[in-house]
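Lecture 7, part B: from sequences to assemblies.

Below are the input chains for today's worked example.
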Amino acid sequence: MNFSARKPAMMKLLQQMVEIESPTYDKAAVNRMGALVARESSRIGAKVEVLPMQDVGDNIVARWGEGDGGILLIGHIDTVFPLGTLEMMPFYEKYGKVYGPGTLDMKSGLVIMLQAIEALQEEGKVPKRPITALFNTDEEMGSYHSRDLVEKIAKEHALSLVFEPCEHLDGALHTWRKGTGKFSIKAQGKAAHSGGAHRKGLNAIEELSHQIVKVQQLTDYEKGTTINIGSMSGGRAINIVPAYAEADGDIRMMSTEEYQRVEDAILNLESVLPDAVLTKHCILNRPPMPFDATMEGVFDKAYEIAKKDGLEIKAGGSGSASDANFVANLKLPVLDGLGTVGEGFHSEEEYFLLDSFIERTQLTAALLRDW
Ligand SMILES: [Zn+2]
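Predicted structure of the full complex, as structure tokens:
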């Protein structure tokens, strides 16, 4: 199959997608993007279901065929970029790199999903097994609204392929990912005049500072566990003893045991200043995706299929999590990082390598055809 010939059509569809900006928190905007993927899916013969959502964009499920043993393609249609980003960061291609908000993460991945299916159709090589595409709308905020749907549909399929960007310039697929958690610590003290009644006050910022140092020290690079207090606030003015302070942080880990260690430590924090009150919350968002026996089996099979098609794939990992973590946590076969290869995702420098756009489409078509 000649995938290079698909380039103009792929770039055209990608430009349409990128120019419909779709920040997660803007339901109407994400729905405009949803309408485009629904229309494209229908155009190539899918039965499309739009699943209405309350607070985020509507999820979309496109199905080609029915029955067991199918392959699920997963992609999110939201981006981290607010409306208007396009003005400073337009869609364009230069020297083999493609720029624009969400080009890498992960609108090019969505194009790959659709174009791989269309390529197989044109060649009469569509497999007998069903293919399903799931387009969810809140991945960039943790998939709190779409997790159940991802898990339910993944259970109906023999393999899930996730089209998140590839973070390795050598194109290595994501065969492991860290898990992610988050926490908040609130300290309650007592307000007082800093001059006239200093002794009567209880400084919440002071209390919280002790806790922040303890929590940051839970980082264990050897085990791949990192803690990042990323924001903090408290106090109102320098002449008031602050009654309140809060810190929020992010946890990354390679194993659920490590998450448990950190959660236990945070929930068991005790105040240092007498009478200060601490409130602690800690949750695991995406569980870790280890390179386990299931993953090894999936990668080896994909490797053989790719090789027959003249492609060489590599295995790699990532410190960030994706919806693949949810699927892997159910012990279901999954492979991630099938999107384009690039750098700078979630930043103005975001770009992907045009060659990888074509190559990943070829790889996806091979996996769909030969799995
Ligand atoms: Zn993404």
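Note for the exam: The chain is about 35% helix and 25% strand. Keep this in mind when comparing with the next example.
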